[in-house]
Amino acid sequence: MRKCLLFVVAVSLTLSCQAIDPEKYARAPAIQRLPIADIGRLDLRVFGIEDKTEDLGVERYFVSLKTRPLVFQRFILMRPRNPVASVILFAGGAGTLGLKESRGALIMNEYQCNFLIRTRSDFADHGFMVAAVDAPSDRQYGMHDGFRNSGDHLEDIEAVISFLKNEAKVPIWLIGTSRGTESAAYIATEAKEAINGLVLTSSMTVPNRRGRTVTSLSLGRITVPTFIVSHENDACELTPHFGAKQIARRLTNAPKVEVKYFSGGYAPASGPCDAMSGHGFYGIEKEVVAYIAGFIKANSQ
């Protein structure tokens, strides 16, 4: 999903990859976990979207993991008291959330309006431990051009999976939207760390120069339940709604595959490939998340 360019806001977005001081990296802990009281974000209420930030029983953390040499993988962790499953959320587009912790607050750029990122609290409300992942520190200019189906990406996300397994012995699901479906599907085909399910929303099925389509991946290697979600009025040329069934036909070894089409919502307030449109389930977010949550709970082992 492209960034929400229609919003004029003061945000910080790192577009270059700054080298990390090896001595500073060596001094940094392998796992940094800092509690956060609030998220620096757009006020989504002006678009009719409620974004809860004080849900009872949900702890919030900024987490930074050392993964590859001189590389940090950062993510937002939302942990209910008794999680029923863990979900790893992959934003679309460049995937760069620009996560930074400052005095107990988390700063994030305009990718906060991405469908999965803006609904992270809704997933936590359904009892899921949530890891909303940023691009790694060496790809803060973007995860395009093959990175989402690379060994480096796999190594970074397997570190997140391992972290979540240590947090709670519950099933782990991967959820991607738009270009994030390339990440989620690729990890599902290659991960040595066991996962329990996959959810793809507004999936990439038309090729362009920014990455691979989901249908070009080795989907026959996926052996977990898979839920494919699309909006009937997704007008993004890269994620047509009929692509959902193309993906489903290629999931020959998944024990269960379900395709769900949604309709309705608000009139688009962004471009067709941006967040505030049918592509991002604008206006029906809670309905979509609730359906996803029901599929996960019904198909977790």
Q: Which outline best applies?
A: globular
Which class of secondary structure composition applies to the elements? alpha/beta
Low-pLDDT runs of 5+ residues are: 1-18, 38-49
Q: What is the typical, i.e. mean, pLDDT?
A: 87
As a percent range, the share of strand residues is 15-25%
Strand order of the largest sheet: 1-3-4-8-5-9-10-11-12
What is the name of the CATH class?
Answer: Alpha Beta
Proper CATH architecture: 3-Layer(aba) Sandwich
Q: Can you tell me the number of structural domains?
A: 1
By DSSP (H or I, 4+ residues per run), the number of helices equals 7
Report the strand count.
12
- If you consult CATH, what is the topology? Rossmann fold
Termini gap = 31 Å
The description of the largest β-sheet is: 9 strands, mixed
- Cα-atom radius of gyration: 18 Å
For CATH, the homologous superfamily is named as: Alpha/Beta hydrolase fold, catalytic domain
The H/E string reads HEEEEEEEHHEHEHEEHEH
Helicity, in percent? 10-25%
